[in-house]
Design brief:
8-stranded parallel β-sheet
Length: 250
């Protein structure tokens, strides 16, 4: 049975004290639901403190990036073993901002995927189309192409260690949100692609979550769709009440 997941991506927004305050505020109003996996992704400098604050709270801590090497002369980079040593639970890969601003292409993302999964490190892997792709009705081909060049090149997928995050790029930080019907349509398409590549058992047990300007007033209608297993939340995750309201909407 696949998990319901709500993950908050804080991006480059809060300092150490603000991160701690945000976690403490979330903890105060978080009424643990064992059926929903709740995650936060603070910035690199604050991962250790965040992990310590979340111990015993059933809140998982994710990194926003990781290097594709286990160690070496890679100034400014962070490895999986470094993240594991401070009890980080997983990593977000393939986010559209990493693809666009830092030129992370499918070859690099495949290497990051491989090293993460080989080392039993959970990956929240982002795919999604631009507004131009959507307007040209090319969104199905775009997400298929992204999967074929990355995830589908890996033969043995453990659904416990892989979450697909569908994020329509045109809805990130714009205030626009895919309709529940649009979200369901493409989530079902992604699940069918997983089934074709790996079989129904893997497809049925892989969580596919939606990311794209999710707010408390839009979350429930999106999350109630059959193939939508939760959300990767950006701006709303910086408000403890909004974030928990989104968690409660599942």
């Amino acid at each position: 049975m696949r998990k319901k997941i709500v993950a908050g991506n804080w991006k480059m927004n809060v300092d150490l004290n603000e991160s701690a305050d945000l976690i403490m505020s979330i903890k105060k109003i978080y009424d643990h639901n064992p059926d929903v996996e709740v995650c936060i992704a603070p910035s690199f400098p604050f991962l250790k403190e965040s992990s310590e604050l979340c111990q015993g709270e059933k809140i998982k801590v994710l990194a926003q990036n990781v290097n594709d090497n286990l160690k070496g002369a890679f100034t400014g980079e962070v490895s999986i073993h470094m993240l594991k040593s401070i009890n980080v639970d997983g990593v977000i890969l393939g986010h559209s901002e990493r693809r666009e601003y830092y030129n992370e292409d499918d070859d690099l993302l495949l290497r990051k995927l491989e090293v993460s999964l080989e080392n039993n490190f959970k990956v929240y892997f982002c795919i999604g189309e631009s507004l131009e792709d959507r307007e040209k009705n090319n969104h199905f081909e775009k997400v298929k192409n992204q999967l074929e060049k990355t995830v589908f090149k890996i033969d043995n997928i453990d659904p416990e260690n892989l979450v697909i995050a569908y994020e329509p790029i045109w809805a990130i930080g714009t205030g626009l949100t895919a309709s529940p019907e649009q979200a369901q349509e493409i989530h079902k398409y992604i699940r069918n692609l997983l089934s074709e590549r790996y079989g129904n058992k893997i497809s049925d047990n892989t969580s596919i979550i939606y990311g794209g300007s999710v707010k408390p007033n839009s979350a429930r209608d999106i999350f109630e769709k059959q193939d939508v297993d939760g959300g990767l939340i950006g701006g709303a995750s910086l408000s403890p009440q909004d974030f928990i309201d989104i968690v409660r909407s599942i």
